[in-house]
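S.,

Sequence below, as promised.
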Amino acid sequence: MRLGKLLGSIDEVLGTPKVDIRSIERLIDQARWAKLYIDFELAFKPYRDVLDADWGTRKFVSETSARQMFEEFRTRLGDVAAETAGHVPLRNLRARVEGVLNVAQQWWGTLAHPS
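The prediction came back faster than expected:
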C-alpha cells in the first residue's frame, strides 16, 4: 500500500513552518493513491464497524488546524500492519485518509486562489 509515501508527504508538510503549494499538491496526490489502494483492498467486503467515519467530513479551517489533523493522522498510524489487517481497520483507515485528502485539497484551494 502507498501509506509510506503518504506519511512522507505529511512529514514534509509538518516539517516546514511555511508550506509550499507543491508540497500540498504532493500530499493530495499521495492521499488519492492511498485511498485508491485501500478501495481495491476493500472491494466486495462488508461495510460495518467504521469508527472513524467523521474524518471524511473534516474541513480546512486554518493552517494550524490542518497541521494538527495531519499530526493526529500520523500518530494514530503508529502500527501500519495492524491498521491494514482486515476490512474493519481498512475502512477506518480509508475514512481517515479521506479526511486528510479533503483538508489538503481545501488548503490547496486557499493557496492557489487567495481571496
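Residues 87-112 form the longest helix (26 residues).

Coffee later?
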